[in-house]
């Protein structure tokens, strides 16, 4: 039902020979009044028709700055002065190593790498033993209750440090089942920042370390789910671990293995700084050949009928790699992107043409992904989003 109407409008918009709409009488009047030739009046009439017609040429296309895919910070704050408090149940294996890890993290190379550019830091750590074994099941609320219970019982003080913002992490034995079946989580309860670590079917002390460090960097960068968090950022919708999934810095890199540092197994995490430098954004990771295309850092905005060429920088140390264009969610039938080449070469921008059809619906949004060949390195996708004004 929509297409015949649109077809008529498309003809009207493209043809200079259509009669003027009745309400567009201004140029005709002025043509009759002044002494210009009929030909001049004709030009004036055509210009008038274009200006006031349904398919106004509109404002020029808007192309936002081009850059790497980075996590934008929300309105919330990060923790630059965390004081880490770890609490271990009596059935936690290698509990002494968890205490040592907490002491090691503030000055670790790992924290310098994963925290670089986010303004986060840990100023100290205290570890306490919980004088009983883990419950068989627990919830986030159980962790809050446990902290209060330990304060009342004198297992730890209400403020283990006078300095900094406390980050409480309760560690559970391998048989404790969290209600949500995750391996770890951090959250906020009122002013308190807290979390838990519960790797079931014990993967060993190394797995405890990896999960604990994962929660630490996410609690620092996103203590209240409103700082570095990709879930509301459509550009991350198609990045593994981002967008519609969990969407914090360590989640985005959890497909990669932990790396050993001073005998601890610590997870890679998303670094905006690495991405901005044209390197693979999960750090620390062993160096690897890497290539990516930078894209618009927000939506390209076009009026119906407009198109614009955008030269996307190709970045990395690979000689060249294949790219493919794929439509993604929010795909509109009436908008399009095409590539001038399907091969990316660093130093030579890849030209993508964004095109909004004459009959594109105002306000519609279209998402495309530029997918780099699998061996070009994570994340391998460059989101291309545009909207029709
Ligand atoms: Zn996480």
Describe it.
The chain is an alpha/beta fold and 389 residues long. The chain folds into three domains: 2-52, no CATH class; 66-70 and 290-388, Sandwich (Immunoglobulin-like); 82-221, 3-Layer(aba) Sandwich (Collagenase (Catalytic Domain)). The protein is 23% helix and 27% strand. The protein has eight helices and 23 strands. A hairpin with a 2-residue loop joins β7 and β8. Zinc ion binds at residues 214, 218, 246, 248, 250-251.
Notable traits:
alpha/beta; disordered N terminus; 8 helices; Immunoglobulin-like; five-stranded mixed sheet; 389 residues; binds zinc ion; single chain; Collagenase (Catalytic Domain); elongated
Chain oligomer state: single chain
Instruction: Give a count of the beta strands, DSSP E runs of length 2 or more.
Output: 23
Q: Sum up the overall morphology in one term.
A: elongated
| Major sheet | 5 strands, mixed
- Number of contiguous helices: 8
Arithmetic mean of pLDDT = 85
Strand order of the largest sheet: 3-2-5-8-7
Q: Which range does the strand content fall in?
A: 25-35%
Distance between the termini: 23 Å
Label the structural class: alpha/beta
* Cα radius of gyration in angstroms: 29 Å
Q: How many domain units?
A: 3
Instruction: Identify low-pLDDT runs.
Output: 1-54
Second CATH tier, the architecture of the largest domain: 3-Layer(aba) Sandwich
Bound molecules: zinc ion
